[in-house]
Amino acid sequence: MRAITVEGGRRLRGELTVQGAKNSVLPILAACVLCGGVCRIRRCPRLDDVETCGAILRHLGCRVCRQGEDLLVDSSGMDRWDIPDDLMRRMRSSVIFLGAILARCGRAELSYPGGCELGPRPIDLHLLALRRLGAEIDESGGTLRCRGEGLRGTEIVLSLPSVGATENAMLAACGARGTTVICNAAREPEIVDLQRFLQKMGAEVRGAGTSTITVEGGRRLRGCCHRCIGDRIVAATYLCAAAAAGGDVCLKGVDYRHLSTVIAALQQAGCRIVSRDRMIRLTGDGALRGICPVRTAPYPGFPTDAQAVLMAALLRSEGTTMFVENVFQSRYRHVSELARMGADIRLEGRVAVVCGVPRLRGAAVRATDLRCGAALVVAGLQAEGTTRVEEIRHIKRGYGDLAGDLARLGAEIRETEI
Ligand code: EPZ
Questions:
Q1: Interstrand relation of 351-355 and 70-74 (parallel, antiparallel or unpaired)
Q2: Is residue 183 annotated as part of the catalytic site, yes or no?
Q3: 96 vs 264: CA distance, rounded Å
Q4: C-alpha to C-alpha distance for 221 and 202, rounded to whole angstroms
Q5: Could you tell me which of 209, 216, 262, 257 has the C-alpha nearest to residue 239?
Q6: pTM of the entire structure?
Q7: pLDDT digits 0-9 by tens, 216-262
């Protein structure tokens, strides 16, 4: 089993190019089945979740191969519409294949998705959207059996701007005759990137980035080449690491506007941040102060995926900071692990109050999900002594080389066999 070992106390210095966005490339890989041709995904990060998508695509009869930073998907040979349960359980994004397969094959069979345990994660809005388009869905025995030969464009109103439900509706609507309007759609940058990809395949999709997305379905789609956006949550993780450890770090290849709320929070905590176009530079001495309450919300609000790493950066801050987790019911599993390092965090339901402490000490801790793992590494960078983060399989799902990247910035960190 592998772990990440960190010796705390080193400042971070240098420049890094941020990987392609996990939460953009996963729905894009699902969308590849819509065209029946060859798609080249540039800057496709090397992640376990990308491997899982590859395994699903191969199971469906597609050919998948990597050429350096690019992933090529040829879906001309697709001859199945089912996904095995073990592949579905490996990640949440497996469910995004449902809309794509339905649009391509008129039928689909799969089980409920897995993914990070962040409290209840129902797919009722996904199924509502597909049923609105005319799909018949039988949910018995833990399997979703879906028929949708004659999908028809319609209005879909989401009760909350779910990222996944918006993506599933966009993909299924590409295979529906007529116009679909998705109201109260998610506005994340990854949704905009998916729209750009679909447009390159010849789909008529507009409005991504706003709450109303319109899809003119039934267009014949073709293969294309697409470069993914930079991963704003990986960038947020490295900025929080630099803020906590102190130093001078420059990130390239990510749009600073995609993480403006994270940048504003770190500036409030005392960091100097200069950003323009596709560059963000943070300088700081590691002495942070408590900030105004951080309330997570759908984009453009503060991203729930950056909540844990910002919390970890503020553990030694002067004063207190209140966090309110509004997107997921239980996304504080990192708190008890951080407490093993001497953190002082008071929890009450969806509210966590971080009371800054003078020092942290290294400890053996365990990642319970992807962003928890990253937060434990950020805490380890500022702790006295050695921190060993176990269960890093969670981290590998979303970070191409967390330890390697931080080592390139001067951290005393490495992956070890335990
Ligand atoms: C996406 O998950 C991201 N994953 C998550 O990132 C991210 O935390 C989340 O959006 C919110 O920003 C990917 O893009 C692969 P949602 P998703 O549907 O699509 C409820 C990470 O760390 N809901 O917007 O699952 C749901 O329970 C991951 O990279 C329903 O009630 O998020 C949650 O409380 C973790 N019914 C809220 O909506 C539904 O049918 C937001 O979920 C769907 C969702």
A1: unpaired
A2: no
A3: 32
A4: 5
A5: 262
A6: 0.97
A7: 999 999 999 999 999 999 999 999 999 999 999 999 999 999 999 99
- Band the pLDDT of 117: cuts 50, 70, 90: confident
The rounded Å distance from CA 57 to ligand 1 centre is 22
**Which pair of structure tokens corresponds to residue 2?**
């592998």
In the structure, which protein residues have their CB atom closer than 6 angstroms to any atom of ligand 1?
22-23, 26, 92-93, 116, 120-126, 160, 162-165, 186, 304-305, 327-328, 370-371, 398
What DSSP string runs through 358-401? S--B--EEE--SHHHHHHHHHHHHTSBSEEEEE-THHHHTT-SS
Whether omega for the bond prior to residue 300 falls within 30 degrees of 0, making it cis, is: yes
pLDDT digits (tens, 9 = 90+) for 280-323: 999 999 999 999 999 999 999 999 999 999 999 999 999 999 99
Of all protein residues, whose CA lies closest to atom 6 belonging to ligand 1?
A: 305
* 215 phi, psi to nearest 5 deg: -125, 125
Q: Which helix (H) or strand (E) holds 234?
A: helix 232-245
Q: Residue 4: which H helix or E strand, with range?
A: strand 2-7
Nearest to 25 by CA among 55, 54, 50, 52: 50
Q: Give the bridge partners for 147, in sequence order.
A: 107, 136
- Closest listed residue to residue 95, CA positions, set 132, 131, 144, 47: 144
d(CA 7, CA 362): 8
Task: For the chain, give percent helix, strand, coil, nearest 5.
Answer: 35, 30, 35
Q: Considering only CA atoms, which residue is closest to atom 27 of ligand 1?
A: 121
Write the CB contacts of 270 (distance below 8 Å, at least 6 apart in sequence): 284, 287, 288, 289
Q: In what side-by-side order are the strands of the sheet with 107-111?
A: 107-111, 143-147, 136-138
**pLDDT of 157 strictly over 90:** yes
The residues pairing with 179 across neighbouring beta strands, listed in sequence order, are 216
**Count of residues in the chain:** 418
Q: Identify the active-site residue in 116, 240, 271, 372.
A: 116
Centroid of ligand 1 to alpha carbon of 114 (angstroms)? 12
Structure-token match 């519409």, residue found: 81
Q: Which atom of ligand 1 has the smallest separation from the CA of 233? A: 29
The DSSP symbol for 92 reads G
Ligand 1 atom having least distance to the Cα of 120: 27
